[in-house]
Amino acid sequence: MALGKRIEVLEKNVQLAMANAVGPEVQIVDYKLRPYSEVKEGYVAVHYALAVNYKLPNNAQVQVYHFFLKTAHSLDVENAEALVFQDSLPFPREVNFFNKIIPSMLKHLKGDSFAPKCWLAMKDMLFFEDLGLIGYSTSKLKVQDYSSLKCLTSTLGRFHASSLLAEAELGKPLNQVDPEIFEDVMFLQDKTFLGGFLNTTLTMVADLVKLFGFKSPNIDKLRDFLIAAAKPSPNKINVINHGDLWKNNYMLNAGNPQKCILVDYQCLRYASPVIDLKMMLYINCTPEQRKMHERELIEHYHSEFCTTLEQSDLSLRIPEFEEIWKTYEEYKLFGVTFAAMYLPGLLMPESVLGKILGDPVSFKRYVFENRSEFVVPLVNSNPEYGSAIKEIIRDLVEVAT
């Protein structure tokens, strides 16, 4: 879509979003659009802060409403280059999720929502409430403290349970409501978006295994297990998985009690809830934290999950804790694989990671093509980083062989 046409579409959508957020009689005076952050944070979308000045009937006072705007294409006349992913799968998935699934998830949910308010979800634009203005922010820490992990666990429990509420509302499994929304993009190899992510990870693992002198796992067998186990289970609970629970995809506030909101619903899958739990606990805390608090946090998750179901006006089966815990133990291979996928990047010094993320060519190469060329030299030159990566690969080898 040409840039001028995008601006024209934006102006029409601002009116629709304001009508939903403020009311149908709203009169827009003007609006201002700017990049949401000086640091690039979106890799499958562009993020903007949108401030809309408006009036209401019988009130001459000009007021302002703030949106967090996500677009599939740049709206910046000075910087309209294409994104790495702009014409690929993830953005329409999130639009369809907010239009088709979220309303049924929230209809029977009592208490705090797990998602930001979305005032308008169009083909290539999403208008959200600006969580930053109500005290929410992403974490600047590489690993989270216990309080933040517990808060994230609570939100994840409500999110997963709400997908069962939506199924009861809609009368069929959610992956049958709109299969494309929940088609796994991380453990499938024939899709444009993240099609090479798993293979790039496993190639890097093989290179690091050789570098560290570990016994090599059967990479093909590992790949086959992950692809098969990421599909819906025929005999266990399946829920919507967020699928990308690294620190930029959830926001915490400093309130008492602390609250958490999940953002960026572009890697959704319909599968066992423990896949999300493994990701959360293997990429957001240290091994020491996980060993100390793992069962306690899963118990807390189970409590929040069950409470969400019990507080609804629907009659649903409440899973026993041991059912969740047993499956969690069986899926350990996901945890060590997620650690190998995410932590080599997240544990990099900020200056190194910033150069990769700030350059579209380097970012694409790191994610899809050859992660080893970035990770191996840093392992060899940075003892602290090398030691951390060695332990991650050691854990994977122990579980996979």
General description of the model:
Pfam families: EcKL. With 401 residues, this protein is α+β, with helices and mostly antiparallel strands. The chain is 50% helix and 14% strand. The chain has 14 helices and ten strands. The longest helix has 25 residues, at 146-170. It is globular. The N and C termini lie far apart (49 Å).
Helices, by number, come to 14
What shape does the CA trace take?
A: globular
Just give the CATH class of the largest domain. Answer: Alpha Beta
Model regions low in confidence, pLDDT < 50 over at least 5 residues: 77-87
Write the layout of secondary structure elements.
Elements: H1 3-21, E1 27-35, E2 46-56, E3 59-71, H2 90-107, E4 118-121, E5 125-129, E6 136-137, H3 146-170, H4 174-177, H5 197-212, H6 219-229, E7 239-241, E8 250-253, E9 260-262, E10 269-271, H7 273-283, H8 287-311, H9 321-330, H10 332-346, H11 350-358, H12 360-369, H13 372-381, H14 383-400
Antiparallel strand pairs: 1-2, 2-3, 3-5, 4-5, 6-8, 7-10, 8-9
Helix pairs in contact: 2-3, 3-7, 3-8, 5-12, 5-14, 7-9, 7-10, 10-14, 11-12, 13-14
Protein name: CHK kinase-like domain-containing protein
Organism: Nasonia vitripennis (Parasitic wasp)
Pfam families: EcKL
Task: Fill in the keyword field for this structure.
single chain, 401 residues, alpha+beta, Aminoglycoside 3'-phosphotransferase, Chain: A, domain 2, 2 domains, three-stranded antiparallel β-sheet, 10 strands, 50% helix, CHK_kinase-like
